[in-house]
Design goal:
Layout (H helix, E strand, L loop, with lengths): L1 H12 L1 E5 L2 E4 H32 L3 H26 L4 H15 L4 H16 L7 E4 L2 E8 L3 E6 L4 E5 L1 H5 L2 E3 L7 E9 L5 H14 L10 E7 L4 E9 L5 H18 L8 H10 L1
Antiparallel strand pairs: 1-2, 3-4, 3-7, 4-5, 5-6, 8-10, 9-10
């Protein structure tokens, strides 16, 4: 019996593929398979553990995701080094030669390396997190995933956009939800000279206070901003948690303001240049 076991072990240990110092046997393949299965189980357990701790301690989803991603990359890297060592590859020499290789191909892969480094910085720094609403250039969207090289955001038009992580480091980025979950909006409105300014203020505040998406703390405010060329100009300052659909909130308010002004015989004037053009054309 012992001889049969030793024969099996000897057979499994025989190389089925070898090249220079690289040697692969059935035993090595089995060990690699076991290591990969264990890695998968460890990652699954780690994910559940991190999620459990997050729910228990009330951590933010973005922070939890960052911890998991960083741990995942470290474990995968260590596993890859272990597998290479099992195959007979000198990882020290490999890392040294890789550094020299990076110098040669670095110019061609410069952008990729920049994105990878930016991804690491984002995951550690946590300035951009999953669930945040960010604006990169003209693109406004909610962060769905932060990967090592790219991030995925979804816009208000339900369009998924893949953004290189270097954009978050190099460009001007607005994170609407970094510190607060609400944002201040300003609506500009002008009324005819001679209008009751107190009534205008009362209507604007009433419209804001009655809207379901406007929060009461901070409370809405009205500012008499200027005496314009053809109108008395007001600003309605409101705060809302609906950051992602803020344009719809402002649209709702404009509809209601227009309705209330009509009921109160308050007129929003045309620009004077439009009236003059009409007279000239007439």
């Amino acid at each position: 019996m012992k001889n049969k076991v030793s024969d099996v072990i000897e057979f499994m240990g025989k190389p089925i593929f070898s090249f220079d110092k690289l040697s692969i046997s059935v035993l090595v393949i089995v060990k690699i398979a076991i290591i990969l299965i264990l890695l998968k189980l460890v990652l699954m357990g780690l994910k559940k553990l991190v999620q459990h701790q997050a729910e228990k301690k009330g951590l933010q989803k973005g922070d939890v995701f960052a911890v998991y991603q960083i741990s995942k990359y470290l474990l995968v890297s260590l596993t890859a080094i272990m597998i290479l060592a099992m195959m007979g590859i000198n990882t020290t020499v490999l890392l040294t030669s890789s550094a020299a290789l990076m110098v040669g191909v670095g110019f061609g892969l410069q952008q990729i390396f920049k994105d990878l480094l930016s991804g690491v910085l984002i995951l550690f720094d946590r300035v951009i997190r999953v669930g945040d609403i960010v604006q990169v250039g003209d693109v406004l969207g909610r962060v769905l995933n932060v990967h090592l090289r790219t991030s995925l955001i979804i816009t208000r038009d339900d369009v998924n956009i893949v953004i290189p992580n270097s954009k978050f480091i190099e460009d001007n980025v607005t994170n609407w939800t970094l510190d607060y979950n609400h944002v201040r909006l300003i609506l500009e409105v002008g009324v005819d000279y001679g209008s009751d300014t107190q009534l205008v203020t009362k209507i604007l505040l009433a419209v804001a206070n009655e809207h379901k998406d406007i929060i009461s703390d901070p409370c809405p405010k009205v500012r008499f901003s200027d005496f314009g060329d053809s109108s008395l100009n007001f600003q309605l300052l409101i705060w809302t948690n609906e950051i992602f659909r803020q344009e719809f909130v402002k649209s709702d308010l404009r509809y209601e303001i227009d309705k209330r002004f009509r009921e109160a015989n308050i007129t929003i004037p045309f620009p004077q240049r439009t009236i003059w053009q009409a007279k000239e054309n007439g």
